[in-house]
Specification:
Two copies of one chain form a homodimer.
Chain A lengths: L1 H6 L32 H15 L1 H20 L7 E2 L1 H5 L2 E2 L3 E6 L2 E4 L11 H5 L7 H4 L8 H8 L2 E5 L26 E4 L4 E3 L2 H4 L12 E2 L13 E5 L6 E4 H7 L2 E9 L5 H7 L12 E10 H7 L11 E9 L5 E7 H5 L6 E6 L2 E2 L9 E3 L12 E7 L6 H4 L28 E6 L5 E2 L2 E10 L6 E7 L7 E2 L1 E2 L13 E9 L5 E10 L24 E7 L2
Parallel strand pairs in A: 1-5, 9-18, 20-27
Antiparallel strand pairs in A: 2-3, 3-4, 4-5, 6-7, 7-8, 9-10, 11-12, 12-15, 13-14, 13-18, 15-16, 15-17, 19-21, 21-25, 22-23, 22-26, 24-25, 26-27
Helix pairs in contact in A: 2-3, 3-7
């Protein structure tokens, strides 16, 4: 909150901009006085919300800016602006190159606002060189008249008229039908699409916005017509069912579960720094939390005549509508006991955070298997089969398994390791970011922690000295039911940092309800596929002098 | 297997003893030839068993010794022997002081047999200075005529006649009624009695012999009359039951579960080496595995009218007959869901490895809660109560919880941490022992691994270089049902060790079915009570030149 620091009279890390556009706004009682110009009603409604979200100082600063902007608009005639292409806008992504953004067809140079942005400089820079709308869509605080007014102060141009057109997809590209994505996502692979949100946005909210939820696709996104869609349910000892989406909605009670999904490869980047691995180079964002809604798999299985507790070890195999060039679908399985347990909370989900499943997340139906690795949460479900064997799919049999550091591609025997189901305890620091220069004073460290199998997070320890000494973080959120703690825990620590502290190595480690802990270092858990990367998360920052 | 190495013609680590008593026996085809002296039938039956247990070489060596002993007995008249007290025998516990043992009323100097002992020198030394019988009782291989014959070669004396008497207990001592214990146990506290088996015996067998099973008593052992014993079962919404042992046996099906119990303080010694902690200084032996038999707690709860899935969070509280001077009993509780789940396998156990529960292990009835810390497996059960709250007992509320390393006795808040239930993944090296001098060649490393919550052990990694490189150990035993893998996994690794390797730091770490791993080091998991000590186990040995 740089703005707040400025208001409090502390040293600003960037030179104070000259007035009027470059003045450091100061909050004053005057801006709260009666007799405000038209629009004050809007501000009046917004103020409590803003105050809650951003702190009161930021609201006051916003109000002051708004007043000055209104004065400027009244005084000056509407200017003519130069025209720019999106590509030209895209060249302005950092303060040295100026920071440009678009809104509608307008182009703005917001360089001087970056450090004043109440949500933090890092957040506004996510939109640098592109459109603001996808980010504003995530943060309702921007949907207020004074925000647009404020923005107009920074207008420098307009988009060329030909920029409205979207380029046509290449013919014959199996990925041509993939849906549009949020520009804030960090793309690890375009085809198939794999992307994660920027770490600084990851733990801002308990529920990850659908647009920012990490996407892990193995194949092109299938185009599914919800009207004609059917789910097949079958297996020995049961009736074969074919269910439409409407039948799934109307015949089975809707069940809602807040659950975190994590890719087995989350934090693989830490592992590939030790030794190269095969796989997408996920940072800490291949994890997210949503409120999922759908039919319980248990209800569907019992409806199909399968029992509560069959003899022997059974599995529920999922098949997706996404298929490779040979027609082989993505597939995975989970133990039958997990699928049928009333406490297992496994869903055939058609909703994500109150909306229909987005196409990238399995529209119209996906498996949500709380506490279990993302790979088993099969998207675009076409078939659910009860079986005495695990899914024969490549992804069940020959991928998503853990091995010792000594196993390489010459010696690996995939049959020797169990398929990953429940994931181990995990945590990561989302703030500050590696390499950041933090001011001396009170340092805020934030992050997430989660464990598989419904094991809640009972403690997060944070070190500022590489693990030599520890503090206990404050855990946010409500207590979850033991054994069904499917969602992550966001955490925060405030700690004093002395000027002259130099480099800090910030470390976090979580403890789950079975008192499992994270390993200290990466090398001893290194594995050739770079999965299960859950060593202590370490972030090095420097303290400004 | 020093004997086998000698037979194979390798260098013996001790000087070859002179004949006849000091000859290094060599196995030969002759000892297997027909026409053996009387007693060969016994050997014939024993040979396959011995071969399986000790390897064929050892059997051949035994046979050869046996033949020579028989010749010696025929030749010499029975000598008169000096008399010794037990205290005098007890002064001979190591080769420099000579190694004496007793059997019945006879005293033997087995110093020269120590390195020839087929089970290993370390094993026979456990009995040094005392009686052989308690150890022979654990290893049926000794119950053969030729073993006694072999022993008689080493006779040096007899026990004084007055040595039969056992000292009377002190009057007024609340522990005076405690049962006799196996002399092989390593006692951490005599009153209350807390003891663990020698590490070198710990992983010799999948099922830990009752006599060697670690004993963790908080209070004196209650004297219970099985005839008048009653268990009270009660709680809101259920019928109050009072059950005799006979009723528990006859009214409910007997259920058997093979489960490992581990004390929360197992391996505390590793933690107290980092910084002092409060608690008994357990080495690696506060863990053991038994086949438990009894009524399922689930069956008893349902019989008492409690439901399968009550609304809200309920608990099952256990109270023991062991009480402190103020009359407060030992107590603990477990989540109701665990108690009532058919897959939870919680027992009201009256049998341990096929025998009635020994007094030290809860006679006549104890809770066995597979996958859960030993402290909740309440012994000498007097009351089982369903309750909306956890047990109010000191041991539930203000002990057996985990804290961060920064929490000390001035700042600890026991209400801030959850009671330990499921334990995290654990492993330890039982062979070789710290400080051992191992011969160059093939090194055998053995140990145990276990995890709480029914999570089976899927891999054990072993390093001989302090964790820089790893090998994968061979896991013994049958695969356990996923989610109900209550028993430990014994493991073994053979690895070549070069002469001149100097010091080795042997390390083990286990991976459980949720791919949880052990932390690298102790300091970051240090806690003021020294519980949950599950960092990599490290054993330093030297390689003989």
């Amino acid at each position: 909150m740089l703005l707040l620091r400025a208001v409090a009279g502390r040293r600003l890390p960037v030179p104070l901009p000259p007035p009027p556009r470059r003045s450091c706004p100061r909050a004053g009682a005057a801006s709260l006085a009666p007799g405000s110009p038209p629009g004050a009603g809007g501000r009046g409604r917004a103020a409590p919300v803003l105050a809650a979200l951003l702190g009161l100082g930021a609201v006051l600063a916003y109000g002051e800016r708004r007043r000055r902007a209104a004065q400027a608009t009244q005084a000056a005639p509407a200017p003519r602006y130069p025209l720019y292409t999106r590509e030209e806008v895209g060249r302005h992504r950092s303060p040295p190159d100026r920071v440009w953004v678009t809104h509608g067809t307008e182009v703005f140079d917001v360089t001087d606002f970056v450090e004043l942005h109440p949500g933090g400089a890092d957040k506004i820079l996510l939109a640098a060189g592109g459109a603001l709308e996808p980010f504003w869509a995530l943060y309702a605080v921007h949907h207020q008249p004074h925000v647009l007014e404020l923005l107009r102060e920074y207008k420098v141009g307009e988009l060329s008229p030909e920029e409205a057109a979207v380029p046509a997809p290449a013919a014959g590209d199996p990925f041509a039908g993939d849906p549009p994505r949020h520009p804030g996502l960090r793309v690890n692979s375009q085809k198939p699409f794999n992307a994660e949100p920027p770490p600084e946005l990851l733990a801002e909210r308990f529920l990850t916005p659908n647009e920012l939820f990490f996407t892990r696709n193995h194949l092109p996104v299938p185009a599914v017509d919800a009207e004609t869609y059917r789910l097949r349910v079958e297996g020995p000892g049961g009736r074969e069912l074919s269910l439409s989406l409407e039948e799934l909605r109307s015949r089975f009670p809707k069940h809602e579960v807040t659950a975190t999904l994590q890719c087995a490869g989350n934090r693989r980047a830490d592992m590939s720094r030790v030794r190269p691995v095969k796989g997408l180079d996920w940072d800490i964002g291949a994890i997210g939390t949503a409120r999922w809604g759908g039919a319980r798999l248990r209800d569907v299985l019992l409806h199909a005549g399968f029992g509560e507790r069959p003899e022997g070890e059974w599995h529920v195999c999922f098949e997706g509508l996404d298929a490779d060039v040979g027609g082989a679908p993505y597939g995975a399985s989970i133990p039958y006991g997990k699928a049928v347990s009333p406490e297992g909370d496994v869903l055939l989900a058609y909703e994500m955070n109150g909306a229909a499943l987005p196409r990238d997340h399995g529209f119209p139906l996906r498996a949500v298997v709380p506490g279990v690795v993302g790979a088993r949460n099969v998207k675009w479900l076409r078939r659910v089969a009860v079986s005495p064997a695990e899914s024969p799919s490549h992804w069940q049999q020959s991928d998503y398994k853990g091995f010792a550091p000594c196993v390489d591609w010459d010696t690996v025997d995939y049959s020797a390791a169990p398929a990953i189901q429940e994931l181990p305890v995990q945590s990561a620091i989302t703030q500050p970011r590696p390499g950041a220069a933090v001011p001396p004073g009170e340092l805020t460290v934030k992050g997430y922690a989660w464990s598989g199998g419904g094991r809640g997070v009972v403690r997060v320890d944070v070190s500022l000295d590489g693990g030599r000494s520890w503090r206990v973080a404050r855990l946010a959120g409500e207590r979850q039911e033991p054994g069904r703690a499917w969602a992550w825990t966001l955490w925060e620590l405030q700690a004093p940092v002395a000027a002259g502290a130099g480099e800090l190595e910030i470390v976090c480690k979580a403890v789950d309800s079975s008192y499992n802990v994270q390993p200290d270092t990466v090398a001893p858990i290194w594995n050739l596929r770079g999965v299960l990367s859950n060593a202590w998360h370490r972030v090095r920052v420097s303290v400004r002098p």
